[in-house]
Amino acid sequence: MSCATAAHYSPFTIHFSLFSSRREGFTLLEVMISLAIIGGLLVTVIYTLNYHLGIADRHLVITESVGLAKAKLAEMEKAPAATKGSFPEPYSTFSYETSVKDSPLVPGVAEIKVAVRNGKEEVSLSELVLKSGALK
Q: Measured between alpha carbons, how far is 32 from 40 in angstroms, rounded to an integer?
């Protein structure tokens, strides 16, 4: 046998010729598996995004509630009174309830309390204040 003939029938040449006859592209099974993986990833990403948007919305509501409760508490320091109501626009979805209670331990001191609600979220703040005329 000559060198040219032996090189033509080498295992590498035969192996190469088997793969060169294969068509280009992906099989249906490969495409379906990749779509299943991508679909699973998309479901996970959308669920995570929705979860974190809910957390961000809840934090926004709580932050606004605390600010409104502080403002109402400062208002009550001047004239303590038990009231209920809603805040004006743009906070019309928030409602409040205030209460005034005498301190059982310290005479001349009152506890003022403000509860602000929006949907299922509630924030309560309280403060001790001297009653008017308590220092005389």
A: 12
| Nearest alpha-carbon partner for 120 in 67, 62, 70, 69 | 62
Would residue 5 count as lying in a domain? no
Task: Judge whether residue 5 has pLDDT over 60.
Answer: no
Distance of CA 64 to the CA centre of its chain: 15
Collapsed DSSP state (helix, strand, coil) of residue 119: coil
In a domain, 17, yes or no: no
Burial of 62 (0-12, 13-18, 19+ CB in 10 A): middle
- Domain assignment of residue 8, yes or no: no
pTM over 0.70: no
Number of Cα atoms under 13 Å in the Cβ half of residue 6: 3
Split into its structural domains, the chain has a count of 1
The range of the structural domain enclosing residue 108 comes to 25-130
CATH of the domain at 82: 3.30.1300
From residue 72, alpha-carbon distances to 44, 65, 118, 126 in Å are 42, 10, 15, 11
Task: Report residue 136's pLDDT band, with 50, 70 and 90 as the boundaries.
Answer: very low
- Other beta carbons within 10 angstroms of residue 88's beta carbon come to 8
